[in-house]
Design a protein that fits this description.
single chain, about 450 residues, alpha/beta, Enolase-like, domain 1, TIM Barrel, 2 domains, nine-stranded mixed β-sheet, 18 helices, about 40% helix
Length: about 450
């Protein structure tokens, strides 16, 4: 112990971090043509020197105004609490935040408040993993199954997954976990790249980046579609020519279509052998996804980055509406709820291929997939983590992708901590970049 003084959480500091990605059309798609990739960023300060927890939720610009305010509204639930107690039971923090009845009314358990809770809960897990001296994936993989089950809220999902079933899945996941952890550290976890496929890119840039992706060892790429069918046909033809017949090519409509249009449009692109169609329609439309799945088979249906909680994921699985589950590290209420979603996917035998396009999402979600491989599903078959090749340099423990695989993080924590210089530069509106930009002094050059 570091003396006899009880360590407590002293503050929750929030930062509005925005990057001007819209100026190069990085991240552009049919529904979101001009995103400025952003993070509503939170730091849990403690009375221990240097002990901090870092977390964030992802937005695409002005949404940060609302998201930062939502995080600040939660501070009363954490300031003054024992660091040891919080880290020993992040589930208690999650339940307290979700259970605030006046804030819960704004959801319940969805939208801005739920994402704010996720940022704070993820920061607690970052702090807990740092105190244990382990990367988060290893902290979870080493945990006792009974403790992991205690971290999950089974309310609303026990009709599909009971605590006993979850415990059985986790106990079975322990078999061979040590060998899989060694394999993970040796080989990494399979990735696919979306970097060639942003809708605003020229055909020449698409082709160049698709060819580079294959040369870099990726066995799957993804293209954004849904704005114009003739453009999609042309771009899919160019991408397929660039990667050849043996590389998987997924397509992503970002919720652009109604159900009938999704079926018609996807089938119009079938000649290019798309592996999955992602977000073909509203993320809340369970039966619509089931209809799309029936109407476009054998093309797979994938969704999840905008699915708002474990309850909707439960229904997508119960209805047989998806072939691929795409959880997001920052859309739901953090690690605890994502444990529930991973267990639901394992129960239904549906592969998890997480969403990671955005600020820091690659850094976070790698830990969840790696835990799933080591201590739950035990496989990477038909499982890949999305990779987007920008903004990683702003994190102190950035992802490393080699030969089409994520290298397993080895530093303690959740890989969530941003470089202080990034915060000083890109905090909105008072960071150095935005101060100059808003004063009309930044010119047209976009910083790296």
């Amino acid at each position: 112990m570091k003396g006899t003084t009880l360590s407590v959480i002293t503050a929750i500091d929030t930062y509005d971090i925005r990057f001007p990605t819209s100026r190069e059309l990085d991240g552009s798609d049919a529904m979101n043509p001009d995103p400025d990739y952003s993070a509503a960023y939170v730091v849990l300060r403690t009375s221990d020197d240097g002990a901090e927890g870092h977390g964030f939720t992802f937005t695409i610009g002005r949404g940060n105004d609302v998201q930062v305010a939502a995080i600040q509204a939660l501070s009363g639930h954490l300031v003054g609490r024992s660091v040891e107690e919080v880290c020993a039971d992040p589930g208690a923090v999650s339940r307290d935040l979700i259970g605030d009845s006046q804030l819960r009314w704004l959801g319940p358990e969805k939208g801005v408040m739920h994402m704010a809770i996720g940022a704070v809960v993820n920061a607690v897990w970052d702090l807990a993993a740092k105190r244990e001296g382990k990367p988060l994936w290893q902290l979870l993989a080493d945990a006792e199954p009974e403790w992991l089950v205690s971290q999950i809220d089974f309310r609303y999902i026990s009709d599909a997954l009971t605590p006993d079933e979850a415990l059985d899945l986790l106990r079975r996941g322990q078999e061979g976990a040590g060998e899989r952890a060694e394999e993970l550290l040796r080989r990494g976890y399979p990735a696919y790249t979306t970097s060639p496929g942003w809708l605003g890119y020229s055909d020449e840039k698409l082709t160049r980046l698709a060819e580079q992706a294959v040369a870099d060892g990726f066995t799957q790429i993804k293209l954004k579609v849904g704005a114009d069918l003739a453009d999609d046909v042309r771009r899919c033809r160019a991408a397929r020519a660039a990667v050849g017949p043996d590389v998987r090519m997924a397509i992503d409509a970002n919720q652009r279509w109604g159900v009938g249009e999704a079926i018609e449009w996807t089938n119009a692109l079938a000649e290019f052998d798309p592996y999955w169609i992602e977000e073909p329609t509203s993320p809340d439309d369970i039966l619509g996804h089931a209809a799309v799945r029936a109407g476009v088979a054998p093309i797979k249906v994938a969704t999840g980055e905008h699915v708002q909680n474990r309850v909707v994921f439960k229904q997508l699985l119960q209805a047989g509406a998806i072939d691929v589950l795409q959880l997001d590290s920052a859309r739901v209420a953090g690690v605890n709820e994502n444990l529930a979603i991973l267990l639901l996917a394992a129960k239904f035998g549906v592969p998890v291929c997480p969403h990671a396009g955005g600020v820091g999402l690659c850094e976070l979600v790698q830990h969840l997939s790696m835990f799933d491989f080591v201590a739950l599903s035990g496989t990477t078959e038909n499982r890949v983590i999305e990779y987007v090749d920008h903004l990683h340099e702003h994190f102190l423990d950035p992802v490393v992708v080699e030969a089409g695989h994520y290298r397993a993080p080895t530093l303690p924590g959740f890989s969530a901590e941003m470089d202080p210089e990034t915060i000083a530069t890109f905090e909105y509106p008072h960071g150095a970049f935005w101060t100059a930009d808003l004063a009309g002094l930044a010119g047209t050059e976009v910083p790296a």
